[in-house]
Amino acid sequence: MRRFKVRKLVRDKIEENILKRKSKVVSRRIENDEFLDELTKKLKEEADELNPHDLENAKHELADIQLVVDCLLKILQISKKELLAIQKKRIKEAGAFDQQIYIETVDLEDDDDWVAYYEKKFEEIK
Questions:
Q1: What percent of the chain stands above pLDDT 70?
Q2: Model's pTM, two decimal places?
Q3: Of 8, 20, 113, 126, which residue is 20 to 30 A from 89 by alpha carbon distance?
């Protein structure tokens, strides 16, 4: 028998399905902050698996992403209505992605308020 260290949040029926195959599994229930942290990891995992060039994959992964988002909304007690209102506000302030703009570089003055943000997020070109 081969053992694999999985260490990740799984859907409710995964453990049951593993056991039906006469395999063994060690699991535990998580809650509170650990659950939120694992949901965040799961959201990143699902986004990484998304292949927009494969329509069937995209459908499945987007459904998985939406499931995780819905779970986060429920736990954080944020309604879909509230989320949509925030989304509309953010679109009004910063726009959406309709124009498909891709920024290659940004030159900032040394005293620009955004310098600290860019230093944290992006590689500085010398």
A1: 100
A2: 0.86
A3: 113
